[in-house]
Amino acid sequence: MFRAVELKNPKNALFLVALLAPLLGICQYTDVINSNRPGLSVSAYAVGKGVPQLELGFSYEKRDHADLNYDSNVYGMDYSVRYGLLLENLE
Questions:
Q1: pLDDT of residue 56
Q2: pTM of the entire structure?
Q3: How confident is the model at residue 91 (pLDDT cuts 50, 70, 90)?
Q4: Under a CB-based contact definition with an 8 Å cutoff, are residues 20 and 12 in contact?
Q5: Residue 51 pLDDT
Q6: In 3D, which of 89, 80, 83 has the Cα closest to residue 39?
Q7: Measured distance CA(57)–CA(65) in Å, rounded
Q8: Which residues lie closer than 8 Å to 25 by C-beta, 6 or more apart?
Q9: Cα–Cα distance between 19 and 62 in angstroms, integer?
């Protein structure tokens, strides 16, 4: 039914590793809260089944433009709401 892959050839071994390696990094879970800055980074970890998490990030920027006689203060807030749904590695 299935034929065994001959791993004596380095090309076959490298091909097998390249084929299976992405499966190891698909989903990761940890019990520790892994926060990130909303709008600037994305966490590689799921929050866990039934776990809600709210992340907030505030920003402030002052702009002065002498040539255009323009001054402004910019305030902003980024937020992210995460909830573990059905499985440990599904948000």
A1: 83
A2: 0.46
A3: low
A4: no
A5: 80
A6: 80
A7: 26
A8: none
A9: 49
Token digits for 86? 């059905």
Predicted confidence (pLDDT) per residue in 39-56, tens digit:
666 777 777 788 888 888
For every residue of 1-55, DSSP letters joined together read --PPP--SSHHHHHHHHHHHHHHHTS--B-SS-----TTT---SSB--TT-EEEE
Which residue, chain included where needed, has tokens 């001054």? Answer: 71
Q: Which two tokens stand for residue 7?
A: 């791993």
Position 29 scores a pLDDT of 59
Token pair 């299976």 is found at: 20
CB 79 within 8 Å of CB 55: yes
